[in-house]
Fold these 3 entries.
Entry 1:
Amino acid sequence: MIIGYNDDFFYFRIVKKNGSVSNFRIPEIYTDFKEKNTISNSIDYQCEILLQSNILLDICNEFKAFKEETLIIQTDRTSVAFKIKDPLVYAETILENKKTNDFYISNKNNLNLEFKVKYFLNIGTIVKKININECLLQIGQNLPLSLVFSISSESSFQFYLAPLLTN
């Protein structure tokens, strides 16, 4: 896998064992690329959620109509809830450990974070276009949402989504 960056786009080239080559151009959706390098790999996220990419894609598809709203992610010891903050409509998807197949959560603290839905939906577009097996969401209070996508057993890539800061 070859990764590059230019003009607000990430470029991926995947050369497969069968000789085929896949090229991807993905817009930068979370922060200035230079700032990404300052994010430490030693961040202690309070919650980690491993799920199949089709579950993440289903959540994104359910929230398409709310792209200008706020997405609330709430976690507790056994579940994670994705909720839409809208003055008129209530929308929510809850994943519960051991009740939802292909979903596992490890959580130290209950969390309640807010993100812009439109940026979260961009992640769904990427999942749809690239053959991604599973996704690891790492969540922490006042930290960017980290999404690690596994493309194969040997390659993955990571995105960060900044939370909305509340006073």
Entry 2:
Amino acid sequence: MSGAHVQVIAIDGPTASGKGTIAHRVAQQLGWHVLDSGALYRLTALACMQRNIPLDAVDQVADIASQLDVRFHELGVYLDGQDVGEAIRQEAVGNGASQVAALGPVRAALLERQRAFRQPQGLVADGRDMGTVVFPDAILKVFLVASAQARAERRYNQLIEKGFSANLLTLLHDLEARDARDMQRVNAPLFPADDALVLDSSDLSIDQTVAQVMAWYKGKLPRG
């Protein structure tokens, strides 16, 4: 099966909408690969921070993105041989990722790297432009949303559970600022693809959200 014919489920949406969790659960049920595209932007931001490169230095940031020494492993994410799985989930890195993701040359540098994840038996890709830019031919495109308050509370609980200090109001303000930046950027702004199905998970459990995505996917398959 050539890469172009491998099925893709694209799950897009704003920060902390639960894309990553849902993508991993769906991929696990199907036995498919998973792409956390946001991790690539977080890794780019982290690499720039470690090298004291300003996040608005377009050419330098794009150069970093094109040369990332990254390995994804079920036990962690490695940058230059170091496990940075926890580091890239810090709020400062997340905000940095939103900044570098607005840079056209950075998105171009990471585009083919993302498409290379499309391998048999299939791929579940989560991000902000999976259905609109990276995999426009995805068999199913889901735009996962939740209220800003619900997303801030989820992120707060995640950080507390991992032992990080967090302030709910600060998280809410940061999240709203990132939403605005992601939706207003010139390059690949955040919006649902024309053929995407919008799923509001504000009042849904993880299992309920996964079940809806799976039902939509099964509905896309040929009868019989």
Entry 3:
Amino acid sequence: MFDNFKLEVIELPEANLRVRHGGYGPPLLLLHGHPRTHTTWHLVAPLLSQHFTVVCPDLRGFGQSSKPIDPYDYEASSKRAKARDCIALMRYLGFDRFNLAGHDRGSYTAFRLAMDHPINIMKLALLDCVPIIEALERCRVQFATKWWHWFFYAQHNKPEQAILADPISWYGGSIEAMGVENYMDFLNAIKDSETVKGMLGDYRAGLQVDYKHDLHDRSIGKKLQCPVHLIWSERDDLPELYDNLIQIWQPWSEHIVTGSSIDSGHHMAEDSPMELAEQLLTFMSK
């Protein structure tokens, strides 16, 4: 897994991140979603590393990266804090400007990173997401039914108890779908109580400080300054919830937002790695 990539834990000002990086060419930072770790990219990253220097961290709170001490410290679990980690990480590796792609919860960190640090981001790919504020303001019965976990995970204590009672049944996943090493890394994460709390902190911050950050940016007319490309899964529920993802994202961008679907379930890096790598390469290389 990740042939010719380097694996290390990097100490940064606010967090220690477990990171894999390798390849040649312009830098590309890949941010995973919930409940995955950076190993979700194990089939995509080697393909992209032929054209880019690919960096895959475990986000703060996830995997084997450090965890906020208090799972209800919304600032410590915020996308803004995680964005600062990403800037520090890329500078540590020698990159001031870089391409960026984020999936699921990682897409929210990617969005905040591009909003807060526009001069550092060259291009932004957002996978399976709409802005947090847009999801919450458009919330209806269908959203609350399909994405009920957003609100459950934000509660105190009960989510941890439910998940840790039987993490495998709760989250699903299999060796066949994920590959042996990726599955084992995922398994170690979901069975660790501190990691589960760290992952839940991402949702708790989402309904608190992250929403407020989005609201403030919209109120002052702040927009993404880099080219933006959306990729969404045909076999996930975003197309059912939203008629036009590009239309939702366009007001958040100074550039014309592009996008396309991919024949995949939600975990597209594992389901359709070659198609995803091709789409990212096409967008990032323009």
